[in-house]
Each structure stands twice: as C-alpha cells, then as structure tokens.
Write a structure and sequence with these properties.
Blueprint: E1 4-5, H1 6-13, H2 17-26, E2 36-37, H3 39-48, H4 60-63, E3 75-76, E4 80-85, H5 91-102, H6 104-108, E5 117-122, E6 125-130, H7 138-141, E7 142-143, E8 146-147, E9 151-157, H8 164-176, E10 179-185, H9 194-202, E11 216-219, H10 228-242, E12 245-246, E13 253-262, E14 266-275, E15 278-279, E16 283-286, E17 289-297, E18 303-304, E19 306-307, E20 312-318, E21 327-331, H11 334-367
Parallel strand pairs: 4-6, 4-9, 9-10, 10-11
Antiparallel strand pairs: 1-2, 3-12, 5-6, 7-8, 13-14, 13-21, 14-20, 15-19, 16-17, 16-21, 17-18, 17-20
The chain binds guanosine-5'-diphosphate and magnesium ion.
Family: Belongs to the TRAFAC class translation factor GTPase superfamily. Classic translation factor GTPase family. IF-2 subfamily.
Protein name: Translation initiation factor IF-2
Subcellular location: Cytoplasm
Length: 368
C-alpha cells in the first residue's frame, strides 16, 4: 500500500534517519535511507521506541473499481477477430479485401487505416478486426493471461497447404481457447487443392462441419475478393454461438494493443475496450503509468467522445508511452490512478532490486 521509507518513518517518529538505520542494523536489517520498510519492521521499530504503530495495507484492488458482472446489464458486443496463418498465405490480402469491400465505401471514402484495428459493419452485425504488426501480434491473441481475440480466422493457401506457421497458429489459438474459422485461400490458383488442405487440417482435429466436425470452412480468393461476405457470415455465426456480452454501463477496462510516441500527439496507444464505456476525460491506470483521456480517435482517425465494448480507439493522454499488452483500467479520479501507478511502480522496482541483489550475491559467492 502507501508504504513508507526509512527516512519518512524516521520523520514520523521524530528521530534522525541515520539513527534509525543504526537501530535497524542492530535488528539485523540492512537498510538505506530511501528503502521501504514493511509493516512488520515498522511494528518492531515502534516497539523499540515505545511508539504504537498502526499499519494499514491498501491493496490495488481497494482502489480500482470492483464491478461484478450483472447479467441484467449485459449486452451483445461485436466479435474481435485476428487473422493467422503461414507467411504469404494471404493474411494481409484478406484484411485488405475486407477493408476495401466493407469499409472503404462507407463513411470514409477510401480511408487509409489509422490504427492496427478496424470495424466492419456487415449486414448481420459489426466485426472488429485486429491488424497489429508482427512484433505486437502476441498481444493480439492473449495479453497478461486474458484473451484479446474472440475468433481466429485461420488462413491456409490452397496451393501450399498446412505449413509450420499454420501449425503454430493452431497451437496458439487452441492454447488460448479461441474458436477458429478456416479460410482456404487462393482457390483461384490452378494448382489449388482444397481437399488436400482439409485432409491435412483433419490431422490436427480441425474437421469441417460437412465432415461431421465442428469447424466452419470457407473457400476464398482474397486477391479476387471472392468469398469474403460468406466468410464474414461464418464469423458472425461463430460469434452468435459464443454469446459475446459485456456491460457497457460501467467504468471501462481494456487492453493496449499498440503504442507509439507521436510527434504531434505525444504518447498514444490503441486501446481495445473490453468492458464498460471509455469516455474523454476518464482517468486511467495502464501498466505502472497513468493518464487522463484527452482525446480519442476511431479506426478511421475520426475524433470520438466515447467507445463501448470491443471498440478499438486511439487514446491521447498517457503520461508515458504504454506497452502493448498492458491492461487499461479507468479509475474514479486522477489521484487514484496516480496512487495505483505508483504502487505498481514501487513493486516493479522492488522486484528489480531483489533480482539485482540476488545477482550480486551470486557474484560474491563465485568470487570467494
Ligand atoms: P501474408 O504474408 O499472409 O500477409 O500474405 P499476403 O497477403 O502478403 O499474400 C502473399 C502473396 O499471395 C501476395 O503476392 C498476394 O498477392 C498473393 N495472394 C494473396 N491472396 C491470393 C489469392 O487469393 N489468390 C492468388 N492467386 N494470390 C493471392
Ligand atoms: Mg502480411
């Protein structure tokens, strides 16, 4: 909680820090002026000086909003989809095809995608696609133990079949417990062999519905924009079965999926809202930093005032550039956000210090 350093504690009980350090040494505790002391040590010191020390542990959870999911308030949210597959099997082409056929004509008239995610308004509902660069892809599936993606589109080129990264994608999706829809791509190619791909995937227990399995397959040509609508239908069908729901009426929680230092905007990050509604003006803690939402932009770069569950937004107002994968939690005010951030910061530093002293102790033992 609000822990105390040696010098702060000395000040509280009205003695010199150096004296307190001596006392601690006699108690067998080696400490420096800026070191934090734990509640137990504070109690022992209190006993030494005949002062009653009252300790209270404030935990992060006491400061963050604790909202139980209320079934009455849960509402449908759009599925968050990631495309995975072997290199050159058509991930980028598919994401482009979906964007070009489903987004471009709508509001933006040929928008250039602004952030690593976009929204599609298909006739049967909204779908959110993640399109984060390779090095940040890890946070596209799972971050800090939580699923980011609801559905994976596993793309396999019909002329190439199952390859090492196809297997890797299957393993990742299965480990994360994320449902897959299979897109067999490049069916326009003369050497396309759809049946072979199905047989290969069956070896990994990915069996199409028409063979009695539980996976939806769609044959597509990303390059020729063939099968895109049908693939989206399948994604939405899959999403219906998952019954994705969230309470939009609570403080927002989300995950940072990408971040950068923008020349004009300062530190910015794309946040995927998982619960609640994020609003301009909200204070938040993110990793061991904090901030206040100064402005938000949607996938097309349009300023927006609020964003509900599943919606990706670019957020301005971070104290520092956040890390992708960081959790993002709205707090009741800025003071609370700062308090939680500093608790997390202290914890991280203590851990680093402990690691370092372990190393130096080992060095010492190596030398003697
Ligand atoms: P990624 O590495 O998975 O992102 O694959 P890309 O989307 O970059 O595609 C790799 C290559 O395959 C490019 O030259 C594409 O033009 C080509 N390609 C993608 N989809 C199709 C398709 O449906 N048919 C054909 N013939 N080529 C495709
Ligand atoms: Mg690509």
């Amino acid at each position: 909680g609000e822990s105390v350093t040696v010098s702060e504690f000395a000040g509280m009980i009205g003695i010199k820090a150096t004296e307190l350090i001596k006392k601690l040494m006699m108690m067998g505790v080696m400490a420096t002026v800026n070191q934090h002391i734990d509640a137990e040590t504070a109690q022992l010191l209190g006993a030494e000086y005949d002062i009653e020390v009252e300790t209270k542990t404030v935990k992060e959870d006491d400061l963050l909003p604790q909202v139980e999911d209320d079934p009455e308030k849960m509402q449908h949210r759009p599925p968050i989809v990631t495309v995975m597959g072997h290199v050159d099997h058509g991930k980028t082409s598919l994401l482009d095809a979906i964007r070009e056929t489903k987004v471009a004509d709508a509001e933006a008239g040929g928008i250039t995608q602004h952030i690593g995610a976009y929204e599609v308004d298909h006739e049967k509902g909204k779908v959110v696609f993640l399109d984060t660069p390779g090095h940040e892809a890890f946070s596209g599936l799972r971050a800090r133990g939580a699923n980011v993606t609801d559905i994976v589109i596993l793309i396999v080129a019909a002329d190439d079949g199952v390859m090492p990264q196809t297997k890797e994608a299957i393993d990742h999706a299965k480990a994360a417990g994320v449902r897959m829809v299979v897109a067999i791509n490049k069916v326009d190619k003369p050497n396309a062999n759809v049946e072979k791909v199905k047989t290969q995937l069956a070896e990994y227990n990915i069996i199409p519905e028409e063979w009695g399995g539980e996976y939806q397959f769609e044959e597509i040509s990303a390059k020729n924009h063939v099968g895109i609508d049908d693939l989206l239908d399948r994604v939405l069908l899959e999403s219906e079965m998952l019954e994705l729901k969230a309470d939009p009426d609570r403080p927002a929680e989300g995950i940072v999926i990408e971040s950068q230092l923008d020349k004009q905007k300062g530190p910015v990050g794309t946040v995927l809202v998982k619960k609640g509604t994020l609003r301009v003006g909200d204070a938040f803690v993110v990793g061991d930093n904090q901030g206040k939402v100064r402005a938000m932009f949607n996938y097309a770069g349009k300023p927006i005032k609020k964003a509900g569950p599943s919606i990706p937004v670019e957020v301005m107002g971070f104290s520092e550039v956040p890390e992708s994968g960081d959790s993002f939690i709205v707090t009741k005010d800025e003071k609370t956000a700062k308090q939680v951030a500093s608790m997390r910061h202290d914890k991280k530093k203590e851990k680093e210090l402990a690691e370092r002293s372990k190393v130096s102790l080992n060095d010492l033992f190596d030398r003697i």
